[in-house]
Amino acid sequence: MLDAAVLAVVADADGYGYDVVRRLRSSGLDDVADASVYGTLRRLYAAGALTSYVVPSDEGPHRKYYGINAQGRAMLDVQRKEWGSFARTVTSLLDPTEGAAR
Length: 102
What we know:
This is PadR family transcriptional regulator. The protein is of the alpha+beta class.
């Protein structure tokens, strides 16, 4: 589900690798590893879900920013639906009274 989280963060605003890591952590994914996020960004880009562009930096090396495109938005929509279905199923398994209320 890291793919969905990364796509959601980038859908909110373009970002470079560490910026995406920081935003995921500030959203509550405290234990997300830098390498996992960087790998996910590269994989999503290679799959055609993200665009990228380089922004020069006065304080160090340039930064590669990632943005979501139409294919990435479609992937995110699918993953949101899959996550919702999964979450409802697990909720009903863990709390049978929740499942009976529907």
